[in-house]
Amino acid sequence: VRAKKSAALTGRTAEKKPGLPVITLLTDFGTSDYFVGAMKGAILSRNPNVLLVDITHDIPPQNIESGAFTLLAAYKSLPLGTIHLVVVDPGVGSARRPIVVEAGGHFFVGPDNGLFSYVYERESKWRVFQLTNNEYFAESPCPTFHGRDLFGPVAAALAAGVKPDSLGPLVEDPVRLKPLKPELNHKGKLRARVIHIDRFGNCITNITRDDLPTGANTKLIVRKKTIKEIREYFAEGKSGPFAIWGSAGFLEIAVKNGSAAEVLHATIGDTVHVLQK
Amino acid sequence: VRAKKSAALTGRTAEKKPGLPVITLLTDFGTSDYFVGAMKGAILSRNPNVLLVDITHDIPPQNIESGAFTLLAAYKSLPLGTIHLVVVDPGVGSARRPIVVEAGGHFFVGPDNGLFSYVYERESKWRVFQLTNNEYFAESPCPTFHGRDLFGPVAAALAAGVKPDSLGPLVEDPVRLKPLKPELNHKGKLRARVIHIDRFGNCITNITRDDLPTGANTKLIVRKKTIKEIREYFAEGKSGPFAIWGSAGFLEIAVKNGSAAEVLHATIGDTVHVLQK
Amino acid sequence: VRAKKSAALTGRTAEKKPGLPVITLLTDFGTSDYFVGAMKGAILSRNPNVLLVDITHDIPPQNIESGAFTLLAAYKSLPLGTIHLVVVDPGVGSARRPIVVEAGGHFFVGPDNGLFSYVYERESKWRVFQLTNNEYFAESPCPTFHGRDLFGPVAAALAAGVKPDSLGPLVEDPVRLKPLKPELNHKGKLRARVIHIDRFGNCITNITRDDLPTGANTKLIVRKKTIKEIREYFAEGKSGPFAIWGSAGFLEIAVKNGSAAEVLHATIGDTVHVLQK
Asked: CA C110, CA A29: separation in Å to the nearest integer?
């Protein structure tokens, strides 16, 4: 192997690189059952020339918001052309629509229950198609496991070059969750919320840099505790909770060598009041 | 990439597709230690041209029945020719035989302790060979880690085309667990059991469609609770436990948006009485 | 595929085999967040021609010793030329140096905080370079996620053939943890410690075969309990804790079909007194 100082390696472009098509997997299946293995098998049985990448299978069971956030935080890191298979599906087998989404050079396959809301919110252009063309599905899809019998097989087909618009009719009104953008309350103040708590106990808010005027002196109030400081690194400074711009592009509340969620007794959905002057 | 509307993609055949040979991994090693990485390394050091697919590493420690069930539920979803490396091995290093099984177009490598019982039960034809030919083993296999030093290397060799019958003598009497099929009690009534509880709390029984006369009005009794309803989807209907044909081919007891295991206080091994009229 | 009875398959050599370059991942990121998926995406976006192998992502948060031990136990099982991406990084974003290590035919990428100590201890030759050449980094690395924006991209570059010495200046004094070798106390007695507790509750000590005179009658004392027996297999013998030479090359304390850590109330760091006669 010789060194190739390509534009791809230096990460300065978003051009499509050669290589097997990537299918990511993001589910609430857990990793202790046969579900993930069976879904991967269903993909590989149809199209072995793919690269499977797990995002996570530990979305809290049936928690669509958590799935939607995790997808938002990860998908742009994957190569253009990646197919994201996202299955958090409390309505599996019912009338909810199976869909494929094309947005920002990525593809997304899963149920139409709001999982792709934040992709619609971030991308200026997107198209959604309902999966009605059953020629790529398993012969008798099990009503309780569309990941294996419907979504996985469709992802395998997309990876082989099947076009989204050949899979079914355009969907104009996909299901969307409450917007991620913080609200302005009746006094004109920003009211944000905790949208995710990560493995380290960091509390990710829905506040982006666009939501805060630069140079403003910002305070956050969560569970009656005031956070006054925005830091650059975790390792900096003293103890106590502080805010930091996180790797998903949102303001996070953290504690050095500890869990902000524990210190603040914070949970997902908690209101974050933003005070600025 | 061009669309290829192949028989493979549409999933209507079981023909062998081109692609790297697949080795699945199914163990009780957990994922917090170096075990899985070392076993994968041992495979790749011998044969880098394989595709590794984790089924799960979270089989409860040394629980052979759970490993056997998970294998049964997953293996048919993988491509024909797949090598399933299954290591739940309380007797590692002792006199229990290491074996390779050829059945239904798949290969299975692991200890002869019952792990492959349900494969023998499902497949009409199978052959078992004891792994006595040590030329593919690590030089001095560690008596506590045959996954890395014996089974992994043999799986790598199988993936390179080594034939099972070159690995050792035929085994006529492989160890088998209690059959999966429900029993008939002395009154001629079907007596089934809970064989697995999944991540969502669904209680998988050992009842298959073949065990229930079609059209019969069936009730299940578990822990003195009666389940009267067989539904098509999870999302359907009202609260309370119901039965549903699960994705592994067995009747499951489920609760909408909840855990049947919690509601019923059910555990693996619980008796399921089947009443029909 | 034809059988190839190569030196590689029989594991009798350490020659480099053809195949995609392997990048292993060893972190404390957990598997429930987007972190691992985003880091893999960052690698694949730059260099899709790699094989990603997870060692574990469940190192206890910010526990450098545990990361260092797990790396030590796993890395030699991977093919020569493997790039080990190791991110347990409490100092992320601060002044701690990002480094690449070349040792024993393997490469290691991560923070200079002691993670590679046991590699330095085991290998007779190693070279360390500070990652100052930012041409392979993401354009504006996030100070809280160097795994995605710095270490992952550098691993992708190494896999494409970029040379470690092109990435920055030589580091003469990498950070090192307390040596793994057991101490001799003031009475000339060996004083070891528990360095890891695995999924099964086995307590791995830092005692190697080199530390114990062969033929000596050895007793271990942990938490005031005396362990008199060194066994060959887990399945052997009676109940009660016993010692066994583990698969990572260290003496382990185990209990048949149970957890030695529970039986002994042992935790990582516990002193292990070694008595010999």
From this structure: 31
Could you tell me the two tokens for A21?
């098509």
Task: Summarize pLDDT for A168-224 with one digit per residue, the tens.
Answer: 999 999 999 999 999 988 888 899 999 999 999 999 999 999 998 776 788 999 999
Are A36 and B56 inside 8 Å of each other by CB? yes
Quote the minimal CA–CA distance from B232 to chain C in Å: 30
Q: Which of residues 110-139 of C touch B (CB under 8 A)?
A: none
d(C-alpha C216, C-alpha C214), whole Å: 5
Residues of C in contact with A77 (CB under 8 A): 37-39, 41-42, 45, 148
Q: Is the pLDDT of residue B198 over 50?
A: yes
Strands B98-103 and B225-227, by their bridges, are unpaired
Among residues A239, A199, A193, the alpha carbon closest in space to that of A220 is found at: A193
Two tokens, residue C80 = 């020569």
| Nearest residue of A to residue C30, measured between CA atoms | A199
Contact C244, C209 (CB under 8 A): no
Helices (H) and strands (E) in chain B — how many of each?
6, 15
Other CB atoms closer than 10 Å to residue C254's CB: what's the count? Answer: 26
- The string of pLDDT tens digits covering residues C42-97 is 999 999 999 999 999 999 999 999 999 999 999 999 999 999 999 999 988 778 99
Indicate the helix (H) or strand (E) that contains C197.
strand C190-197
Name the H helices within B5-143: 35-46, 64-74, 117-122
State the CB neighbour count (10 A cutoff) for residue A215: 7
Query: How many Å apart are CA B198 and CA A145, to the nearest integer?
Result: 13
3-class DSSP assignment, residue C212: coil
B38/C236 CB distance under 8 A: no
Q: Which residue has the tokens 């500890």?
A: A258
Interface test with C, best of A4, A6, A10, A27 (most C CBs within 10 A): A10
Chains linked to C by 3 or more Cβ pairs within 8 Å:
A, B
Q: Provide the greatest CA pair distance for chain A.
A: 62
Q: Which of C89, C200, C74 is nearest to C146 (CA)?
A: C89
Chain B interface, mutation test: which of A22, A45, A83, most B Cβ atoms within 10 Å?
A45
What is the secondary structure of A261-273 as a DSSP string? HHHHT--TT-EEE
Q: Is the pLDDT of residue B236 over 70?
A: no
Instruction: Give the Cα separation of B23 and A112 in Å (integer).
Output: 33
Q: Where are the alpha helices (DSSP H) in chain A?
A: 35-46, 64-74, 117-122, 146, 152-159, 260-264
pTM attached to this predicted model: 0.93
Interface residue B18 vs chain A (CB under 8 A): yes
Q: In the structure encoding, which two tokens stand for residue B147, read together?
A: 């996954």
Residue with tokens 């309902």: A130
Measured CA to CA, the distance from residue C57 to residue A55 in angstroms comes to 12
Cα-based angle C203, C208, C211 (whole degrees, multiple of 5): 125
DSSP string, C112-165: SSSTTHHHHHH-S-EEEEE---GGGS-SS--TT-HIIIIIHHHHHHHHTT--GG
ipTM above 0.95, yes or no: no
What is the CB-side half-sphere exposure of residue C269 using CA atoms within 13 A? 4
Interchain CB contact of B22 with A (< 8 Å)? yes
A140 in reach of chain B (CB within 8 A): no
User: Does A77 contact C156 at a Cβ distance shorter than 8 Å?
Assistant: no
